[in-house]
Amino acid sequence: MGKKRREVELVIISDIHLGTYGCHSEELLRYLKTIKPKRLILNGDIIDMWQFSKRFWPKSHMQIVKHITGLLAKGTKITYLTGNHDEMLRKFAGFKLGSFQIDNKKVISLNGKSAWIFHGDVFDVTMQYSKWLAKLGAIGYDTLIVINTFVNFILRAMGRGKISLSKRVKDSVKGAIKFINDFEKTAADIAISNGYDYVICGHIHQPEMRKITTEQGEVMYLNSGDWIENLTSLEFNAGQWKIYRYADDLFAQSIKIPKRFKNNLDNDEIFKDLVNEFLAPKK
Known about the structure:
The protein has helices at residues 25-32, 59-73, 125-129, 131-157, 165-172, 174-193, 250-254, 259-263, 267-279; strands at residues 6-13, 35-43, 77-81, 96-97, 100-103, 105-110, 113-118, 198-201, 208-214, 217-223, 232-237, 240-245. It is built from nine helices and twelve strands.
């Protein structure tokens, strides 16, 4: 690869949505190949079980699972926090195996400050009262992403820049903007009332890092964004948070995907390798 992987104390990734057409799995794999995290928190909607189908499970999606599992063998501590699209895993909350665990939420200490981490769908009214409506909306969103991919293909052929249809829809709908603002304020209010220094979510596909102040106090609100539209994560290193943006990472963009990854390995072979790495002792 030619360049040493960056050592990062903590990486938080959410809303990958493996198993959907909109997932930017190859870009995510390039990013993962550039970092060496001591701790990785997968903050929900990693595998999209709402839309999962054997008819669409590309090798690149399986390779993401394999790479993340391989990090365990290299000493990375991994926590999988459940989201609404992978809610089937909530029955396994509390499960631990070596350096891997599944949970619904997590409170950790970072340089003496407390961070409250959870996916965030608990604040979504459509999730609480009309799950079928939320699922219908997810299917519509995925269809929009497929159309967006086709539109951007045409635009590139014409020598023009990419656009995000879903972002334009969100930006033009006052209700969507209000929902995001309400989501952030609700998360901040609860975090402040519980004395947390950081509150960290995913779910709304809106990367953010800002201090929120209320009459009760203040908290740093962070959101890891997604790997459908924004291609972002959160990184904590040397006492500092930052939003990682794939669009700004020219080195990650330059990484070549091996030919064997695209052509030769089938999912059964990758799965066997995955199990072997998962069970292998740490090096």
